[in-house]
Design a protein that fits this description.
Helix 5 packs parallel to helix 6 (125-140) and helix 14 runs parallel beside helix 16. By secondary structure, this protein is α/β, with parallel strands linked by helices. A seven-stranded parallel sheet has the order 4-3-2-1-5-6-7, with helices on both faces. Strands 9-8-10-11 form a four-stranded mixed sheet, covered by helices on one side. It contains 16 helices and eleven strands.
Length: 379
């Protein structure tokens, strides 16, 4: 069967790798829509190659450039956030890969769910900001939420066929990023160029900075709590510098199941896009002899305060995780622009948690308002 799929964020790291997966499997996928934020040149090239039904550029200033590049090609061309949301809910697609960066993925993902689309989720912030509401919508509309993050894909695979009541603990692995083992004195002098040098993964700038601060792992803990319906107390993080074991599940009898593989995002992307079938591919294979030593250590939550703040927000509940996410997005952007230091990222997040309105049982509208308030506060 041909799976009809739309990719929100097709010009980013996940989106481009998803298109590589499609290249490897001609006849398995039909592209309905491709969307991008600003990269109109790459979006036009993708549209010319893959010939989707629709394309959308979120930045309306780029609409004329997109129209010029695709004139006469029989592709529907749209621009703006509202158009992007409409395409997320388009009846022609059966699965939506949400590869948008940050909070921007929440509303399109919710609309896709409410319109009966299965979700291949590469936008962890959707569950960080509104996990309870999103997963309720998944249940109410009887769709599948298939994780694309390598860690959550690993957990999903380890849990396949297991009774939820048999699970004792989820164990998320972290590479430790470029600053593993460094102290606060060292971190006080690092800049964006240092933080963008991830040892194992090639990712977009925002997620790479999050990996360096360990906030990415904190966001993944929050995502796992909602995705797998498990309490924060039953989620652990362990630093695994080789990034071969992508995550593990410990069961109540003491057994641990781990999912392993080379650090290649095309594997979890492919698994989610064609679940439940495992498609063959020609990706490089893992060899134990190439990795004779796999090591593990505890994360340093005192030096890398962002991870501790994520756990604290999850325990607090309400809109606390929304506050953390919004503050982190502003802080990371400011750090990339060299307006604040690396160590000021957790300071800004903590200030937002202390200074912004806290709601114990927020609606989606409350979370949208909270996100706006926190961003204004941090700016």
């Amino acid at each position: 069967m041909i799976k009809k799929i739309s990719i929100l964020g097709s010009t980013g790291s996940i989106g481009t790798q998803a298109l590589e997966v499609i290249d490897h499997h001609p006849g398995k996928f039909e592209l309905i829509s491709l969307t991008a934020g600003n990269n109109v040149e790459l979006l036009a090239l993708q549209a010319l190659k893959y010939k989707p039904k629709n394309v959308c550029i979120a930045n309306e200033d780029k609409l004329e450039a997109l129209k010029s590049a695709l004139r006469g090609k029989g592709i529907n061309i749209f621009a703006g956030e509202e158009a992007l949301r409409d395409l997320a809910a388009d009846d022609a697609s059966e699965m939506v890969l949400t590869a948008l960066v940050g909070y921007a993925g929440l509303i399109p993902t919710m609309l896709a769910i409410k319109n009966g689309k299965d979700i291949a989720l590469a936008n962890k912030e959707t569950l960080v900001v509104a996990g309870a509401l999103v997963m309720k919508a998944v249940r109410d509309h009887k769709v599948q939420m298939l994780p694309v993050d390598s860690e959550h894909s690993a957990l999903f695979q380890c849990l396949n066929g297991e009774a939820p009541s048999s699970v004792e603990k989820l164990i998320l692995t972290a590479s430790g990023g470029p600053f593993r083992g460094k102290d606060r004195t060292f971190l006080s002098g690092v800049g964006p160029g240092d933080a963008l040098k991830h040892p194992n993964w090639e990712m977009g700038a925002k997620i790479t900075i999050d990996s360096a601060s360990l906030m990415n792992k904190g966001l993944e803990v929050i995502e796992a709590r909602w995705l797998f319906d498990i309490e924060a107390a039953d989620i652990d993080v362990v630093v695994h510098p080789q990034s071969i074991i992508h995550s593990m599940v410990q069961f109540k009898d003491g057994s641990i199941i781990a999912q392993m593989g080379l650090p290649d995002m095309k594997l979890p992307i492919q698994y989610a896009m064609h679940y439940p079938d495992r498609l063959p591919n020609q990706f490089k294979r893992f060899s134990f002899t190439d990795y004779p030593n796999l090591t593990f250590e505890q994360p340093d939550k005192e030096t890398f305060r962002c991870l501790a703040l994520a756990f604290e927000a999850l325990e607090r509940g309400g809109n606390a995780c929304c506050i953390v996410n919004a503050a982190n997005e502003i802080a990371v952007d400011a750090f990339l622009k060299e307006k604040i230091s690396f160590l000021q990222i957790p300071e800004m997040i903590e200030s937002a948690l202390e200074g912004c309105y806290f709601s114990t049982s927020p609606s989606l509208e409350d979370l949208i308002a909270s996100n706006a308030e926190v961003r204004a506060f941090c700016e």
